[in-house]
Amino acid sequence: METPSNPKTEDYTYKQGQYSPRKRKDTTPKVNPQLAVELVFQELKRVEDATAKKVEVDRGSLESAENRLKSVLAEFERLGNRMKNGGYVDKRVSFYSILCAVISLLFACLMCYLWVDAAKERDRYQPFYEYYQQMQEQKEGKE
Q1: Lowest-pLDDT range, 48-52, 129-133, 136-140?
Q2: C-alpha separations of 7 from 12, 14, 17, 21 in Å
Q3: Exposed (0-12), middle (13-18) or buried (19+): which is 121, by Cβ within 10 Å?
Q4: CB-CB contact of 16 with 28 (8 Å)
Q5: Which of 9, 52, 82, 107 lies 20 to 30 Å from 34, alpha-carbon distance?
Q6: φ, ψ of residue 46 in degrees (nearest 5)
Q7: CA 88/CA 78 separation, integer angstroms
Q8: Which residues, 6+ apart, have CB-to-CB distance to 20 below 8 Å?
Q9: 73 phi and psi, to 5 degrees?
Q10: pLDDT at residue 54 in the model
């Protein structure tokens, strides 16, 4: 037998280079197989229920989105039909717009009339004004 180079290995009864596994403590937990099966079954049922609820939620949100899209499309179609028929102008708005235009036109006519009338009055009093200016100039010239 060869002498080992390491003094610590001298007390072993095996040859150098030979593998000897260590004795390990058993660390695997003791599990009741029935309990393990019940726990796995409960977890599978929970996952299945959550998946079913998710599918229901997704279906509900999909249906609500579909209904909103249908309502928007129906509104566009209704507005398109109104535009084709010429009824896309609100009657009250068009009435008030026409009324404002008529009142504005009447006001403009009144202002034109007053302006022309004032011009006529000025033309009628022009000779008197010129006479007054001449009299004022004569008074200033005498003084």
Answers
A1: 48-52
A2: 10, 14, 15, 20
A3: exposed
A4: no
A5: 52
A6: -65, -45
A7: 10
A8: 12, 14
A9: -65, -40
A10: 75
pLDDT of residue 104: 94
Assigned token pair, 9: 């290995």
Question: 27-36, pLDDT tens digit by residue?
Answer: 666 767 777 7
What count of other Cβ atoms lies within 10 Å of the Cβ of residue 4? Answer: 13
Distance between CA atoms of 76 and 89, rounded to whole angstroms?
15
Report which residue type is found at 45.
K
